[in-house]
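To the structural biology subgroup,

Please find below the input and predicted structure for S41 family peptidase, which we are adding to the shared reference set this quarter. The sequence is reproduced verbatim from the submission form. If anyone notices a discrepancy with their own records, reply to this email rather than editing the shared folder directly, so we keep one authoritative version.
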Amino acid sequence: MRLNYIAAALAFALGAGALAVSAEGFDTSREETFRQLELFGDVLSRIENDYVTEVDDAALIEAAIEGMLESLDPHSSYMNPDSFRDMQVTTRGEYGGLGMEVTIRDEMVTVISPFEDTPAERAGMEPGDQIIAVDGESIIGFALDEAVDLMRGAVGEPVTITILRGEEDPFDLNLVRDTIPLRSVAWREEEGFAYLRVAGFNEHTTEMLLDAIREINETYDGDVPGVILDMRFNPGGLLDQAIGVSEAFLDGGEVVSTRYRNPGENQRYNARPGDMLDGAPIVVLINEGSASAAEIVAGALQDRERAVLVGMTSFGKGSVQSIIPLRGGRDGALRLTTGRYYTPSGRSIQGTGIEPDWFVSARRIDPEDEDNRISESELPNALENEAGAERAETDIGVVEQPPEDWSETEDFQLHRALEILASSAEREQAALTR
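Predicted structure (tokenized):
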């Protein structure tokens, strides 16, 4: 049976159902859906019969589904079975690739942030870089999943990607695909304090964080002087892991709330009592690459006055996505934006981001470069902040910048965070000895 007959039959079935509902007086809006499905069938039939070359019917339908979802917001998408399996691997295992979070911006694959210690990060890729070709093949106008598929592959295989960065001429980066590890948490001592890096939120992040905090407590004999929690360029991940990470630093109370189209599905998530650091001062490092789950943690610790935030305004993704398998995953899955999240004080950071308590830039600021910084509010079809709030322009006058002679190999944001943490620890110690 030709595809146009199938489409017509589907349209008739849905339309008949709509008319039956209408006859009972419940809903007449499905009649318009019926007409639109007929239109879809007509267009598909025309392409099938009259296009200059033979077409792949399945590819056409998949493209239509992708276009439908991409018209909603930047984070809703269709994952075909291969992409769905890749997503499952990313959240629970490891995969062969380059290690970066990307999106579509102005029909270009654009880097949100490279993952720490991956081929992308080691090659010097930066947020805002536009990837215009893979192994010499242009990917301008490609769907995100198509572009990602080209960049992923077997560990050890080389790949050349062509980058467009600002006003520079396009240039090539030669990378070798590597295992993108699950390990999203690491810690070390830094100037007498514990430096804790959380690079993402996969299924094992909370477990790894708890192990790291136990090691920190053992190292400092239970008297931790202070912690730097670094979530810069953390693209986010699983909501439950953001809650688990926040809970480790809070002694009960609200972490985040989520609100959905159906108010009956709204949720509030509270931390269980028991701050694992026993009140030790915390400084959280964020920047424009800190997104989603990272913003949930930063917002919870800021609102609950448990930590001081240092760095630059975060990405501003305040929406929740649900993964909806189709036929058990055999037909792939939908990644659908189904809700919004709110920090404990009830604020939505959708489009606005979280502003740090101390604005500190990693490098000296060129005012012209500010326009090239990528954020949620600049993505196509981004959800509006329901309170009408907009992302504030950064007042360069209040941003601490590295001195002109500061070495680019040294981390100025971390340097200032350690100074702020040391001052906080001194104040707490002085209060205890009074």
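Summary notes: Residues 1-26 have pLDDT under 50 and may be disordered. The first strand starts at residue 77 and ends at 79.

Regards,
Lab coordination
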